Amino acid sequence: MTYDLALAWRNLRAHPVQSLIPMIVMALAIGLSITVLALSDGAKRGIVQASDPFGVLVVGPKGDGQQLVLNTILLQGAPLGTIPPEIYDNLAADPRVSLAVPLAKGDNIGGAPIIGTNANFFELRTSVNAPPAFQIGDGAVFTDDFQVVLGSRAAQDLGLHTGDSFRAAHGVGAGLEEDVHEQIFTVVGILKPGGTAYDGAAYTTAESVWHVHEHEEGEEHAEGEEGEHEEGEEHEETGLTAILVQPVGFAEANQIWQDFYTDTTAQAVFPGQELGGLFDLLNQGVQILTVVGYLVLGIAALTVFLSMYNSTISRERDIAIMRSVGGSRVNVFRVVLFETLALTIFGALLGRLLGYGMAAIIGTVITQRSAIPLPIAYLVNLEPLLWLLPIGVGVLAGLIPAGLAYRVDVVEKLSPT
Amino acid sequence: MNLRIEDLSHTYPGAEARQVLCIDAWALKDGDQILLRGVSGSGKTTLFNIVSGLLHPTTGAVYYDDRPLYGLAEAARDRYRAQHIGYIFQNHNLIGALTALENVMMPLAFARTLTPAAQRKRAIELLEALELSDYIHTLPKRMSAGQRLRVAVARALANNPRVLLADEPTAALDEHSGEVVIDLLQSTCADSRAILIVASHDPALISRFHQRVDLHAGQLHEAQWA
After folding, report:
1. Rounded Cα distance, A223 and A404, in Å
2. Residues A230 and A108 in one domain
3. Up-side HSE of residue A271: CA atoms within 13 Å toward CB?
4. Domain that holds residue A365
5. End-to-end CA distance of chain B, in Å?
6. Is residue A55 predicted with pLDDT exceeding 70?
7. Which of A196, A185, A105, A182 is nearest to A146 (CA)?
8. Residue A414: its chain B contacts at CB < 8 A?
9. Phi, psi values for residue A123, rounded to 5°
10. What's the CATH class of domain B30-54+75-222?
11. Which end of chain A is more exposed for a tag (fewer CB within 10 A), N or C?
């Protein structure tokens, strides 16, 4: 058996090109599957990790609950709108609520969203006994309007430090350079990295966000544009885009959710539920890509089979020589089967390097662009399957060529004529 | 070891089926060295293939020490061949992807009578004895025909066979190299009391064998040539 294995390895080394091609195809098949599975696994864990500190309920304007959660927790897309600050006042005073955090998304600095909130934001925790999720790494929490605490990645990307000043740009995304507000913000603190999308944002008081707009709107009014200003617009400018709510218990959470269910201006959603819907969508995509992965694996199996079949046909004389010097039919059968298995196993090994490598690169790029963490981890639960598949493919693809070797007519193949 | 053939005949199947071998009886004993001559198509290679256990005869039997070779299961026959029969093919039949050393080690590995280290040592000793020290790690395609033949000789001698079959062993060699090879075959077989059967047209070999037989139309005859 050991010699058969050594001989199989020697044969593969003797024909490097013929060996490498099926090996690479197998590596691509396994690599594709691993990339898709590792990224989907990373996306799920990243989203869970990113949503961990944000409480049990998110209260926001009526509309698509998933969009509310995505915009509030992952800072993706535009806000649904705003809700009156009185809702926050009521929730903050509600005995069923242990912590309420107002969020007012408005402007941005260099693409990093500026979020108006209050000191409660820095009390958010992943669990009751856990340390605060957003801790100051440098400087201090804002104590006055137009003071800003930067997320760690925002500070790094913008090149801003404690004590630096900047002017906010209008809107939630990076826009024209000249579309900036007059008001100057001063950086008073920088957060420690938290592994959430909030690392890429800037935090100030909600009033700062509102005042910037009120101030400029006042100027516009002074320039004689009152006619275009509709009733209630000022109210909208002082609205909140969401409120994070940590109820005192599960029953209270349900009660609050029920209260908002009949409300016409706001809704309460459970982030876990909404993200579950998102995962369902993600799973559908993964299922489609998994089918593609199986197809590629099938093509890889066919490539390995054809390669080994042709290789065995072209080596029938060598196989006959092996038999003539004492090798049995079982010996030559095993040599060809071991060669096929070696091709698929090394292909699977190479596929892992490719798969996890590609997933890590794509994950890093996605994290840089979206600020959603995408941790790539070893697929412990799927690894046995990801080994069994190529081994099964190797055995199936190798059986016919090994059978050919088994049936070689020694005398005919050794005949000089 | 005794080699005995009884009522042996072989007919290749097919539309033009014809009997290529018909031997009533032939017996050889330890230390016999036979020169077998016959024209092309006389049945020499068929006889060697049957005697080596590669080709099941149509009728008859081959006995080694009174045990019928074809009474063994195929796997056992393969092992028997590896351990006791050396076969030098007319066209050498070396595996092109393996070095000289690897080719010589192959029957040793299949015989499983020595450890891998001992197999390697034995193969190197044989190659050195055949003046191939510089070609141990060379592929057959980088060797001359004579060098390839010597590798084939080393491979056939690897397991100290009890029977050595050599099909035209000097055909590709110059006179000196031919003498070296025949010297080695004869002396090795004489030392180990192995049976040596050499099929050859080389007239230079006639004087070196006392036992000579002709194979004509598949039948054995006492040699009529001097």
Report:
1. 91
2. yes
3. 25
4. 2-48+278-414
5. 28
6. no
7. A185
8. 54, 89, 93
9. -100, -5
10. alpha beta
11. C
Are A191 and A149 in contact, with CB atoms under 8 Å apart?
Answer: yes
Task: Write the ipTM.
Answer: 0.89
Closest CA to A304 of A32, A33, A29: A29
- Please tell me the distance from the alpha carbon of residue B147 to that of residue B168, in angstroms, as a whole number: 15
- Closest Cβ–Cβ partner in A3, A321, A330 for B95: A321
CA distance A360 to A365: 9
Q: Are residues A215 and A93 in the same domain?
A: yes
A53 pLDDT exceeds 80?
no
Q: What is the DSSP secondary-structure string of A338-369? A: HHHHHHHHHHHHHHHHHHHHHHHHHHHHHHHH
Nearest by Cα to A318 from B98, B112, B148: B98
How far apart are the C-alpha atoms of A94 and A378, rounded to whole Å?
A: 44
Task: Say whether B54 and A15 touch across the interface (CB within 8 A).
Answer: no
The structural domain count of chain A equals: 2
Round the CA-based radius of gyration of chain B to a whole number and report it: 17
Is residue A350's pLDDT more than 80? yes
Are A97 and A186 in contact, with CB atoms under 8 Å apart? no
**Per-residue model confidence (pLDDT) at position A233:** 43
Chain A residues lying within 8 Å of B81, measured CB to CB: 324-326
Chain B residues at the A interface, defined by Cβ less than 8 Å, are 45, 49, 52, 54-55, 74-75, 78-79, 81-83, 87, 89-91, 93-98, 102, 106-107, 109-111, 155
Determine the pLDDT at residue A229.
Answer: 42
pLDDT tens-place string over residues A257-306:
999 988 888 999 988 788 877 778 778 888 888 888 888 888 988 998 99
Query: Scanning every residue of chain B, which has its alpha carbon at the shortest distance from the alpha carbon of A14?
Result: B97
Q: Same domain for A303 and A322? A: yes
| Exposure class string for B164-178: b at 16+ Cβ within 10 A, else e | bbbbbbbebbeeebb
Please check the confidence at residue A346 and state whether its pLDDT lies above 70. yes
For the segment A71-83, what is each residue's pLDDT rounded down to a tens digit? 888 888 888 889 9
pLDDT category, A163, cuts 50, 70, 90? very high
Percent of chain B with pLDDT strictly greater than 70: 98
- Residue A211: both structure tokens together: 């005042």
What DSSP character marks residue B159? T
Identify whether the C-beta of residue A389 lies closer than 8 Å to the C-beta of residue A297: yes
Q: What is the DSSP string of B112-130?
A: T-S-HHHHHHHHHHHHHHT
Other CB atoms within a 10 A radius of the CB of residue A216 amount to: 15
Q: Which two tokens mark A410?
A: 């020694």
Residues 6+ apart with CB under 8 A from A19: A12, A13, A343
